[in-house]
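Lab meeting, item 3. Inverse folding demo.
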């Protein structure tokens, strides 16, 4: 009888230990998934819109009066996970002579793919062009490039949110993109007021 009770007690203690281990394992698993999701969001974070507060922050980037253009993030390095939709970033330009913008067509921009980039060689220019959604039209060369009106403006500064969708299953690669801004408030202005570039790095799809 005593031995039987001891066996039952041991079995009960083992069951409790097993339950505790399972519960702790589930808790740690959930914490790990949450951490992984947060890391994923930071790695591929995007700017969802241009509001007044953001415009004020962008104004500080134009502290140098000779600076005609800018990009946010400032380093122009964009890490985007395969399967990401509606990834956004900001580019902007200002009028050459400080004239206030009164309509969106006063300052215009264009995007041009670098055909020598890794992604262009691996998957082709046509597929990369399809990544750029909505008003974010992109050209494969200078010859077929078209200027597009900005979407937001403040004083002499114009902004546009470029939207990118990278399909799931896209091969890991990098793509360099050129951009130019032109000032249409000056009818004699036929050349870009400034230009720059950014690089899209396609990284692995998140586990969750």
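The presenter then showed the designed sequence:
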């Amino acid at each position: 009888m005593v031995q039987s009770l001891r066996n039952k007690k041991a079995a009960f203690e083992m069951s409790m230990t097993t339950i505790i281990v399972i519960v702790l394992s589930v808790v740690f698993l959930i914490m790990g998934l949450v951490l992984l999701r947060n890391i994923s969001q930071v790695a591929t974070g995007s700017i969802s819109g241009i509001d007044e507060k953001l415009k004020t922050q962008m104004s500080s980037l134009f502290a140098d009066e000779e600076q005609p253009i800018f990009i946010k993030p400032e380093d122009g390095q964009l890490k985007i996970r395969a399967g990401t939709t509606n990834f956004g970033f900001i580019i902007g330009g200002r009028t050459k002579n400080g004239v206030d913008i009164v309509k969106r067509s006063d300052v215009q921009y264009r995007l041009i793919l670098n055909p020598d980039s890794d992604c262009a060689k691996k998957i082709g220019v046509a597929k990369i062009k399809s990544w750029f959604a909505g008003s974010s039209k992109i050209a494969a060369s200078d010859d077929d490039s078209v200027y597009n009106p900005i979407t937001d403006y403040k004083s002499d500064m114009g902004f546009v949110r470029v939207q990118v969708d990278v399909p799931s299953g896209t091969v890991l690669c990098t793509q360099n993109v050129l951009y130019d801004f032109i000032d249409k408030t000056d009818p004699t202005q036929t050349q870009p007021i400034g230009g720059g570039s950014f690089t899209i790095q396609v990284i692995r799809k998140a586990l969750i």
